[in-house]
Amino acid sequence: MESLRFVLPQSEIPTHWYNVVADMPSAPLPPLGPDGKPATPEQMGAIFPMAILEQEMSSERWIPIPQPVREIYRLWRPSPLVRAARLEEMLGTPAKIYYKNESVSPAGSHKPNTAVAQAYYNRQAGIKRITTETGAGQWGCSMALAGQMFGLDVRVYMVKVSYQQKPYRRSMMQTWGAEVFASPSNLTQTGREALSRDPDNMGSLGLAISEAVEEAASRADTNYALGSVLNHVALHQTIIGLETRKQLELAGDWPDVVFAPCGGGSSFAGLAFPFIADNASGGRNGKSVRLVAVEPTSCPSLTKGDYAYDFGDASGFTPLMKMYTLGHDFMPPGIHAGGLRYHGASPLVSQLYHEGLIEAMGVPQLATFEAGVMFARAEGIIPAPESNHAIRAAVDEALRCKESGEAKTILFNLTGHGHFDMASYDRYFSGELEDFSYPEAAIKESLQHLPRFG
Amino acid sequence: MESLRFVLPQSEIPTHWYNVVADMPSAPLPPLGPDGKPATPEQMGAIFPMAILEQEMSSERWIPIPQPVREIYRLWRPSPLVRAARLEEMLGTPAKIYYKNESVSPAGSHKPNTAVAQAYYNRQAGIKRITTETGAGQWGCSMALAGQMFGLDVRVYMVKVSYQQKPYRRSMMQTWGAEVFASPSNLTQTGREALSRDPDNMGSLGLAISEAVEEAASRADTNYALGSVLNHVALHQTIIGLETRKQLELAGDWPDVVFAPCGGGSSFAGLAFPFIADNASGGRNGKSVRLVAVEPTSCPSLTKGDYAYDFGDASGFTPLMKMYTLGHDFMPPGIHAGGLRYHGASPLVSQLYHEGLIEAMGVPQLATFEAGVMFARAEGIIPAPESNHAIRAAVDEALRCKESGEAKTILFNLTGHGHFDMASYDRYFSGELEDFSYPEAAIKESLQHLPRFG
Q1: A288-344: per-residue pLDDT in tens?
Q2: Which of B13, B74, B175 is closest, CB to CB, to A376?
Q3: Which of B379, B432, B348, B48 has the alpha carbon at shortest distance from B226?
């Protein structure tokens, strides 16, 4: 009986993260302060520990994973690489399809890979509490879990509409010991002002970020943690691709093409970046791996955005970053892949895309759910709506192989499970799920508001 | 870095299930028909395929697992055996604690181990559709998943109150292609009669069983599937303990005591029965493994029930089985471990308990949630309320070791995750969760209604 899952022993948990900066054709463009000059570590030191800022700026190829972080990774890592043999059969494709199963973490997604590292470095720096924001709840859960592992208090500002609609994500965070507040709250100046303007304000991710950052900046024992976009987050996620490379060797295979969902960009970076090292050194047997970021057609930062300096948050609070952006005040349609509703893409992902080292594509919402249901019926696991974007792309590639007769090897990132997204599946089955049209006018409008310098 | 997870390669998925009947001091007592005479295979053949009835009556020690069943098991098996090192540290115990993680199946529990086998045998017998019932939804999900894997239509009668309160379990079943009906429905005579008596009838497990059985009995292409209690279900679940034994050898360890939650008894049977073979042949190094079934104090069939012939369902529709029972019309308090709210225990588990080969204990609801939260904070995974019963027992044993200084090895069955039970955790955190008192009067009353013959 052929093995479908390729599992590494825990002794094979990577000892180093891979820093793609070392293999980029040109150095990353720095973040800029409000004055248009490069942001200094001192400016960012108010909310991040120095070890993380060093990683943010590093160009070292290999960065050691601290032993206590590897020890926590043991709770669910190495995650399995799985051959989707039943999906191949269902599609009748000659292609081979593999997926890296990041849904196996206790929080249900890849997010704890960086949350655990960030908790560790903050703990090392003497920090007692972490503030962060969460929308749908994936990141808040991951930070709650990670804080518990290193004895940090975690305070999560959860967008009020999600706080009310997703009580179970909130209960998960509480199970791991975190405090969760509906944002806007009356705990911060930002929150109080928002509530005084509109007592019924249901919150936004931008507002929740502002509240979390305000609390972190105002207390010496408190730092802030972000779950995507930044370089150190992408770095920590490379453990996904590093494990995958070893597992592919076990399977005796190598991908022609890699797909991962792309919102802020951390799950794409995590799986794809380690293959850039291979491509940079000429590929395997002279063959480069195609690396494809898959985004929603309704929030198409890479495929339809400008490559420009823009704020990381909606309210213009963060440093400016050079990235593909739809404009920081672009409000994406209410798609169910909440983790992909971000106006920009990570600066590293953006620069690699700009320089032609990676590709990007958009897929519409209904087609992603169709692919997710197909995957669930073939492979069992019910995927997160974010993951369905990568699955759609993989399925379409496999169907093209069926047409052409090519036996390509396809790899995708199953970034999380859909156990807390069943309401979205319900809407899909009842025919209530919409396909949003491409929000051309809204993007055009918000791109008018890009900061003018930089 | 020490390994905490012991993972077998897929080639080590067991080739045979273990039938504990071969090692029982006396033969199992047969089920009886309504006339008090042993039920015949012909009587049961209306709703079960012959291959399953043969397993139900077999006394062969090893029963081959069909290759197509092993191939589906590959989607998540072998499941990990995990050393709960952080829990040990949190408790400050010299004991070693291991858990078998059955929460990794796509449906989130051990239930698919038998659902997949039952789907296969029904498919082999030419059956086109399966009917079953579900309360909280664990079993319905598992049967929906298994039916999809073998191309069977699955129709689930879901207790109406759960159908309304647990829409996400329903969406999961639909994602796997099953049809789900609120029970009582107007699809069966039983359902129509119940609705005509009371149009607002919110259903019960007994009623849902009756609807599923009625449909299966009335159609030649349709069979019925049950998720616990019966011998063949216990048999299929022994894959849990068989894998665990191999994994303990990898870990270089052997348990002193094994805990598993016990409702109908299938998860206990699954983990514990294979150790009965060891105990029967004198134990390892002359040491027997203590095997402890953990039940809720509010539904204490083994610890407070009578050992008697009783119906398997509330309405007296099934054959009579000799088992520890609280009386078939005992209505357990509304504890959140829905899978343990059953009036009896599997006949095999009951007989082994009666003959002193296994032990049983009861734990109260609040203490189980306290242990579950402790486990989640140490090990990450949020357990199902059913699993929390085994965790409570394991934690208490580890704390006794702390007192005595003994370095025992403790093993328990993590039967499922709690992703669809967060409302129960919510109630626990908000202080709304009750500890029910021992329902002595209700049990005394229902034991009066035991059938008088047999």
Answers
A1: 999 999 999 999 999 999 999 999 887 787 899 999 999 998 888 888 888 898 899
A2: B175
A3: B48
pLDDT tens-digit profile of A93-134? Answer: 999 999 999 999 999 999 999 999 999 999 999 999 999 999
DSSP structure class, residue B92: T
Widest CA span in chain A: 65
B175 close to A (CB below 8 A): yes
DSSP states along B283-328: -BTTBPPEEEEEEETTS-HHHHSEEEEEESSTTS-SPEEEEEES-T
Distances (CA, A) of A328 to A50, A139, A158, A347, A430: 27, 20, 20, 14, 34
User: Would you say A243 and A77 are in contact if contact means Cβ atoms under 8 Å apart?
Assistant: yes
Q: pTM, whole model, 2 decimals? A: 0.97
Q: Taking CA A146 as the corner, what is the angle to CA A141 and CA A152, rounded to the nearest 5 degrees?
A: 110
List of domains in chain A: 5-12+64-108+232-447 (3.40.50.1100), 112-226 (3.40.50.1100)
User: Is the CA virtual torsion A345, A350, A352, A354 positive or negative?
Assistant: positive
Instruction: Say whether pLDDT at B210 is over 60.
Output: yes
Which residue in B70, B76, B177 is closest to A377 by CB distance? B177
At position B344, the amino acid (one-letter code) is G
Cβ atoms of A213 and A317 closer than 8 Å: yes
Q: Is A195 exposed, middle or buried (0-12, 13-18, 19+ CB in 10 A)?
A: middle
Q: How far apart are CA B107 and CA B94, in angstroms?
A: 35
Mean pLDDT score across all residues of chain B:
95
Give the tens place of pLDDT for each residue, A223-269: 999 999 999 999 999 999 999 999 999 999 999 999 999 999 999 99
Nearest CB to B377: which of A1, A176, A419? A176
| Distance in angstroms (rounded) separating the CA atoms of residues B151 and B446 | 42
DSSP for residue A403: H
Distance from CA of A231 to the nearest CA of B (A): 26
| Mutation site for B-interface testing, chosen from A165, A171, A370 by largest number of B Cβ within 10 Å | A171
- For residue A136, which of A116, A102, A107 has the smallest C-alpha distance? A107
Where are any strands of DSSP class E within B135-219?
153-159, 179-183
Mean pLDDT of chain A: 95
Of the given ranges (A120-124, A204-208, A423-427, B237-241), which has the lowest mean pLDDT?
A204-208
Strand order in the sheet with A222-224: A179-183, A153-159, A129-134, A222-224
- If one counts every other C-beta atom within 10 angstroms of the C-beta of residue B49, the result is 18
Question: What is d(CA B144, CA B112) in angstroms, rounded to the nearest whole number?
Answer: 9
Please tell me the total number of residues recorded for chain A in this structure: 454
Kindly provide the residue ranges of all beta strands, DSSP E only, lying in B93-185, ordered along the sequence: 96-101, 129-134, 153-159, 179-183
Taking residues B53-58, report their average pLDDT: 96
- A360: nearest Cα among A399, A321, A307, A435: A307
d(CA B422, CA B3): 30
Please give the full DSSP string across A54-79, using - where no structure is assigned.
HHHH---SEEEPPHHHHHHHTTTPSP
